[in-house]
Amino acid sequence: NAGVMQNPRHLVRRRGQEARLRCSPMKGHSHVYWYRQLPEEGLKFMVYLQKENIIDESGMPKERFSAEFPKEGPSILRIQQVVRGDSAAYFCASSPAKDNPFEKLFFGSGTQLSVL
Amino acid sequence: SQQGEEDPQALSIQEGENATMNCSYKTSINNLQWYRQNSGRGLVHLILIRSNEREKHSGRLRVTLDTSKKSSSLLITASRAADTASYFCATGGGSNYKLTFGKGTLLTVNP
Predict the structure, then answer these.
(1) What residues of A are in the B interface, CB distance below 8 Å?
(2) Which residues are bridge partners to B86 per DSSP?
(3) CA distance A83 to chain B (A)
């Protein structure tokens, strides 16, 4: 049973370009979360999604950022017109639907976004 | 905010010694979790303690929770070099699905 898969591991973009980060949750998991980690900081919640639904995007900047979790395929975190301040590690986590899904998150290895 | 804050920020010990890390938080919680992060990797869930529990064990890990002081501690006994990592506490769970992480404690275990 593969873990949470994120790609790419490293992404370099120039200011103004778009960044697309992908996350495939663990098999059987229907809850996906995106977190951002700045250097020397803890993880900050961005968005919580279930299949085809955004449940809570309160941690996501209002502009340039969007997320989706389609019926088929991975969850995508999209950052348009990236700026240097977007440089960070972006982590995806998933949890199963049964029991209490929020009690244990399974994290991917993250995507390190560098904006030049 | 239910933000957890770990203390100390960094801890360096010798292999075989015990490591204790502390976490404080601000508001009522349903549970508190500890995660480990190896350099450049994602977080790995270590242990969860519920608000009605005071102590929990898992292998070489011992977690305590004092809800009156809004604090928790993580004890790693007989540490190994492989325990070198950053350790984060996270609060939330239950109806609050937005886990809130502290800045972490960087533990270095010297062989």
Answers:
(1) 4, 6, 33, 35, 40-45, 48, 55-56, 58-59, 91, 93, 100-110, 112
(2) B37, B106
(3) 22
Please give the Cα distance from B79 to A78 (Å, whole number). Answer: 41
The whole-angstrom separation of Cα A1 and Cα B27 is: 37
- Which of B:11-50 have CB within 8 Å of A? 31, 33, 35, 40-45, 48
- pLDDT 10s digits, A30-82: 899 999 998 877 889 999 999 899 999 999 999 999 999 999 999 999 999 99
Task: Provide, as residue numbers in chain B, all residues whose Cβ is less than 8 Å from the Cβ of A113.
Answer: none
pLDDT of residue B2: 44
- What pLDDT, in 10s, does the model give residues B12-56? 999 999 999 999 998 888 889 999 999 888 899 999 999 999 999
Tokens representing residue A73 in the block: 């395929």
What does B37-71 look like in DSSP terms, one character per residue?
E-TTS-EEEEEEEETT-SEEEETTEEEEEETTTTE
Q: Indicate the SS3 state at residue A17.
A: coil
Q: How many CA atoms lie within 13 A of A25 on its CB side?
A: 26
Which among B42, B45, B103 has the least Cβ separation from residue A41? B103
Give CA–CA dist A22/A96, Å, rounded: 19
Q: What is the pLDDT of residues A6-28, one digit of tens each?
A: 999 999 999 999 999 999 999 98
